[in-house]
Design a protein that fits this description.
Blueprint: E1 7-20, E2 23-36, E3 40-44, H1 51-58, E4 66-71, E5 74-75, H2 81-89, E6 91-95, H3 106-116, H4 121-134, H5 150-163, E7 168-172, H6 180-197, E8 200-205, H7 208-214, E9 217-222, E10 225-231, H8 232-237, H9 242-249, H10 258-263, E11 272-281, H11 289-296, E12 300-311, E13 314-324, H12 327-339, E14 343-351, H13 353-357
Parallel strand pairs: 3-8, 3-9, 6-7, 7-8
Antiparallel strand pairs: 1-2, 1-4, 4-5, 9-10, 11-13, 11-14, 12-13
Length: 358
């Protein structure tokens, strides 16, 4: 899918070592990734993983110790002086704490990059008014940051970042200071401008729901290394690295309720039933497999937990059932479900509740 001519960002063997009083520490270790034009690319990692350092290497606020950073076909890590400043103008950035100037109004904050570029007042007006309209702040032009909500402040940050018409927007924890509802509205705005301006967006976060909401692909950064990357749906539904699994668990694969987990046995006592987790994704979610099983096999399902998430508009379902039936019939049912491309995990066994009651 990633055609070379569509490449917007290419990071190759990036190493960043800081030397401080305590000696050198390597914060990014051989990071390589590519981001396509028009893509929303997520980078997720725990605190201290090196995320901010990585974005700062993309816009050259930090110099790589080794490796290459290419943006829009130019090796930014080799630029200096006026060329570097020009390249930086092509890369917008928004921050967790917005970084607005408190003494300037909404309009003047958004206009700042254009003032610095020496544009005339009339030109600036022509550029900034539509941007403030785009981010939904046309009625707040004369407000000061202190008079705005967090979400509104971030909208100013976005307008300011867009003023220099960047090809790439870097977002470092841009929604981390916002409540969930405001987060969703900012993410929706980012998706809108991604579409309408064909803007490439790099979104840094430690929150999996943010990745799930708008990213096309995601890379997982752990202790300065990319441990996993791929389309968001794939990484969500088949995480390989332990750190990825722990991120995913926050959103899907909810743990079993404790009263159920406590009853679960790994061996199979007499008169017990198997507990299965059935995962269905994409096309398999649209076939009535469970109904088929019940119709064709001597098995009944007691549903213990059920949950359907949508990732990039694709369903990811997860149900936990107690399968009631003779062992052979249950095995045939499991085989049948697997033959329909659903994933089945045997979680354990529970004493047959009906017999316990009888
Ligand atoms: N200028 C610096 N000098 C020395 N060490 C630094 C410098 N900047 C960052 N570090 C170290 O690099 C590591 C990664 O920091 P970074 O800010 O990139 O992490 P992060 O993933 O963005 O974390 P968070 O989620 O908390 O923002 C940390 O251990 C930090 O102490
Ligand atoms: Mg950071």
């Amino acid at each position: 899918m990633s055609l070379t001519e569509n490449l917007m960002i290419e990071i190759d063997g990036l190493v960043k070592t800081f030397t401080s009083a305590g000696g050198p520490s390597t914060v990014l270790k051989n990071v390589s990734l590519t981001i396509d034009e028009g893509e929303i690319f997520g980078i997720i990692g725990r605190s201290g993983a090196g995320k901010s350092t990585l974005v700062r290497c993309i816009n050259l606020l930090e110099r790589p110790t080794a490796g290459r950073v290419m943006v829009g076909g130019k090796e930014v890590s080799a630029l200096s002086g006026a060329d570097l400043r020009a390249a930086r103008r092509g890369i917008g950035m928004i921050f967790q704490h917005f970084n607005l100037l408190s003494s300037r109004t909404v309009y003047d904050n958004a206009a700042m990059p254009l003032e610095l570029a020496g544009m005339s007042k009339a030109e600036i007006r022509r550029e900034v008014l539509p941007l403030l309209d785009l981010v939904g702040l046309s009625d707040k032009l004369g407000y000061y940051p202190a008079e705005l909500s967090g979400g509104q402040k971030q909208r100013v940050g976005i307008a300011r970042a867009l003023a220099s018409k960047p090809k790439v927007l870097l977002c470092d924890e841009a929604t981390s200071a916002l409540d969930p509802e405001t987060t969703q509205s900012i993410l929706a705005l980012l998706r809108d401008i991604n579409h309408s301006l064909n803007l490439t967006i790099v979104l840094i976060t430690h929150e999996m729901p943010v990745i799930k909401a708008i990213c096309d692909r995601v890379a997982v950064l752990d202790h300065g290394e990319i441990v996993e990357q791929g389309p968001v749906f794939d990484v969500f539904t088949s995480p390989r690295a332990e750190v990825t699994r722990s991120f995913v668990r926050d959103v899907i694969d909810r743990p079993l309720p404790s009263h159920l987990a406590e009853r679960l046995k790994q061996d199979a006592p007499v008169d017990s039933n198997v507990v299965l987790r059935i995962i269905f994704t994409g096309p398999s979610a649209e076939t009535p497999v469970i109904a088929d099983v019940i119709r064709h096999y001597e098995v009944m399902f007691n549903i213990l937990q059920a949950n359907v998430e949508y990732i990039q508009a694709e369903p990811y379902g997860n149900i936990v059932v107690e399968a009631i039936g003779a062992p052979q019939a249950v095995q045939e049912a499991i085989d049948y479900i697997r033959s329909k491309d659903l994933r089945v995990e045997v979680l354990g066994h529970v004493a047959d509740t009906r017999r316990a009651v009888a």
